[in-house]
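ok so I'm stuck.
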Amino acid sequence: MTFRVAQRLRGVRLRRNPFVLHPPVALVVRAEPVITLQTLIAASRPSTDRLHLRNLFHDGRRYYVQPRQNGFRITSDTRQFWGGRRRRTGVAAAVFGAVSTLDSDNSITSIRLTTRLHAPYALSSILLPSFIGSIVLYIPWTTPLKALLIGGLFGLSWFGYWLNAALQVNEMIYFVRKALEDLPPGELVELGATVPHVVNSPRDDFRAEWQKFYDQQTGG
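replied:
not stuck anymore, here's the structure
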């Protein structure tokens, strides 16, 4: 296992929803939504003018950015190492980007990334275990042993497919982060200490202020 893959594995966690492969990611850049989308589309095409992005295309990886209403969708695949140079792996997952603006002149753009397992890819994980399981059923073993073996086949197959999709998603999120580094980061204005109705004090002072406010509202 290469160090790069090991780095990606650190971000992979088992989720309660097996179709969600990565927690949502929020990014903010100082650019209009149209410029943000154009930057992603341009970065998805390998070019000698963008050599700082060359690591994104290792192992023949490619990215496909599809504009959508109020956002975009990204899928990815890689070159297969067998069966011909033009054969590529299937799409295992997709990353969806919801784009919105944070100011009146559309100069600061927020991107929220969510992920989803590709349904046909998930269904393909049961094909091989189903075939082998149909053979195991006719082997003269005990029923508990056959059930354990078939269950293990389905579990291992699902985990392998899920892990591959999770790694693919991590690559796509890394692609978005790296591509948007060419844009200036967005800076959100923090609330100052003198803003009305904002208490900027230690916890004990806050509790006292809250109790005072509560007494005023309840007439206590």
